[in-house]
Design brief:
single chain, about 270 residues, Rossmann fold, 7-stranded mixed sheet, 4-stranded mixed sheet, 11 strands, binds S-adenosylmethionine, methyltransferase, Methyltransferase type 11, transferase, SAM-dependent_MTases_sf
Length: about 270
Amino acid sequence: MRRGREGLPRQRGYVTLLKGDRCESEQTGDMTDGVEPQPQYDGFADEFLDHARDSLYNAHYDRPTCLRLLGEVAGRTVLDVACGPGLYAEELVARGARVIGLDQSPRMVHLCRERVPSGVFHVHDLAERLHWLPDESVDLVLFALALEYVDDRRSTLRELRRVLRPDGALVLSRLHPTGDWLRHGGSYFDERIVEETWSRGWQLRHWLLPLERTCEELHEAGFLIERLLEPQPTAEAALVDQARYERLLREPIGFLAIRALPAPVR
Ligand SMILES: C[S@@+](CC[C@H](N)C(=O)[O-])C[C@H]1O[C@@H](n2cnc3c(N)ncnc32)[C@H](O)[C@@H]1O
């Protein structure tokens, strides 16, 4: 039985087995809430790198979208939050950015340091404050595909707002809430933690959150949403997996991405 964070309410848990496009979901009774205090990705960080380098979802869907939303990065300092194995960091540095990254997983941070020697990477759990970063010290914040692993998202987003320059921007991507709901069923509005076993056998716990929750948490943390995209895969995605490419063109089962600006302090 996994440990949860103390002080958080207990909610129902579900186990979902994702096999290709098939999904089997089974309620497992009450689980202690809090996603997971241990770094969930540590045990398969190398496999994740191997997968995400060229995968349809990462290389031909999420990364092109978030990089587009970030815009011009040359000469700018980008905070890569939950940086994973450094695939974003590598691209950002190639485009002329200075990159500071953080991830909860020591193995992910090791892979980042190997991949992007010019970057500065910290092992850091988003449950903690970013005490090593001063106020208004970064131009852009990238927070790709990790929001759903954070229990106290409002505090995390407030921290990101604190370290962002007033003329900066936050770009985040997350699982599309409609896709989550289609996979798991139940009430779309029920905020809960699920446990999934992905097709590669990776077991992950994460939050299911309706779209309004993310919009409200951004608002409460002091951000104004500038753009919200329901991305389409790039044409190259068809070469990786034609069936999934065609499905993503029709159905909201992938990710969404948001560009948000710091709201002026009143
Ligand atoms: C799906 S991967 C995304 C990695 C990278 N952003 C990308 O898109 O290639 C999710 C990442 O979030 C990190 N993560 C999960 N929970 C975290 C937490 N509480 N604090 C910091 N990083 C976390 C994981 O270790 C993992 O590297």
